Amino acid sequence: MVMNVRGYAAHSVDSPLGLFSFVRRDPRANDVVIEILYAGVCHSDIHNVRNDWGNAKHPMVPGHEIIGRVTAVGAEVTRFQVGDAVGVGCMVDSCQHCKACAGGLEQYCENGNTLTYNDVDRHDGMTTHGGYSERIVVSDRFVVKVPQGLDLAAAAPLLCAGITTWSPLRHWKVGPGSKVAVVGLGGLGHMALKLAKALGADVTLFSRSPGKEDDARRLGADRVVISTDATQMQAVQGHFDLIIDTVPYVHDVNPYVATLALSGNLVLVGYLGPLEPAVNSAPLVLGRKSVAGSVIGGIAETQEMLDFCGQHGITSDIELIRMQEINEAYERMLQSDVKYRFVIDIASLRA
Questions:
Q1: 287's torsion region: left (phi>0), alpha (psi -120 to 50) or beta?
Q2: Whether 144 contacts 303, CB under 8 Å
Q3: Bridge partner list, 293
Q4: Backbone angles phi, psi at 103, to 5 degrees
Q5: Cβ-contact 326, 17 below 8 angstroms
Q6: Which of the residues 152, 233, 278, 301 has the least number of beta carbons within 10 Å of its own beta carbon?
Q7: 210 vs 227: CA distance, rounded Å
Q8: For the chain, what is the radius of gyration of the CA atoms?
Q9: Tens of pLDDT, residues 34-58
Q10: So what CATH class is 162-293?
């Protein structure tokens, strides 16, 4: 048995997204059935739809920033009940027995996690489809609870943009007294500013152009450094314990490495691919600095992040759109014309 669902899908790399009917699996004993209320729009949705990473499976229903309410649970589910506000992020399964999974790091599953969309279910071989749809069926291990009091629409991007920046902040133990910088003020960058500030850090935004200071300060930055200004960059040489680099395209990281303190770390969360030009190893060796990478976060870590956001009243800055506006939203995202995340009101799909 399966359930019939409507969503919006891309049928090829260059076709607009449009209405698409497909099936979800009949719930298993450990499954949670979720009526989707809101779905965040991530830049990786565009990359996947347009096959920028070479692994697109069409037709594709994107969306991995999902907020909804539980409508049914399997016989073995105990953590959730009908009516709960819940979230689903970038993963819906993993092997659950490798070292990474055992350590709560399902995003690094040694046997490959199962992505929320553009992937294949490891149990039944069905294509996974994401949150641009009416309902989803997910293993209870990959569902998280949304704290009471959070705006549900604005909480949706926490399931990707939030956890992607939270994970390195926690891994490198950011707290009071930490000096943190963020490169790039977009969907990821604005969340990094909010979370780092709430953790007690001294927070700086690196920006290539003036004009973002007021917004950056509102989001949590203590200062803005213009990265194209040699004098401003020189003033912060050797300053930062952690730099979160959210820029999604190839760029020179060497100027930022120079601003790391002894044993400092620059972590890439926005770009996948070769670094050009090459990273100069001299400041790494002579200052015990590192350039690292990080991707989303584990399920326990995601729940920790949501609970922290609930305690501190943190959500994303969003623009709520109708499902029928998704193609226009994609074009606007490519022009960086959103502050700072589009979220789809899935009620518009049912209208």
A1: alpha
A2: yes
A3: 268
A4: -95, 10
A5: yes
A6: 278
A7: 10
A8: 20
A9: 999 999 999 999 999 999 999 999 9
A10: alpha beta
Angle in degrees, 0-180, between the axes of helices 187-198 and 299-312, rounded to the nearest 10:
70
| pTM (2 d.p.) | 0.96
Cβ atoms of residues 87 and 79 within 8 Å: no
pLDDT (mean) for 219-233: 97
Residue 193 CA to residue 186 CA, distance in Å, equals 10
Does pLDDT of 342 surpass 90? yes
Dist CA 68 CA 159 (whole Å): 12
CB within 8 A of 20, min separation 6: which ones?
6, 7, 8, 9, 11, 59, 61
Pick the CATH number of 2-160+316-350 from 3.30.300.30, 2.40.37.10, 1.10.357.10, 3.90.180.10: 3.90.180.10
Whole-angstrom distance, CA of residue 256 vs CA of residue 63: 32
The greatest distance separating any two alpha carbons of the chain, rounded to the nearest whole angstrom, comes to 65
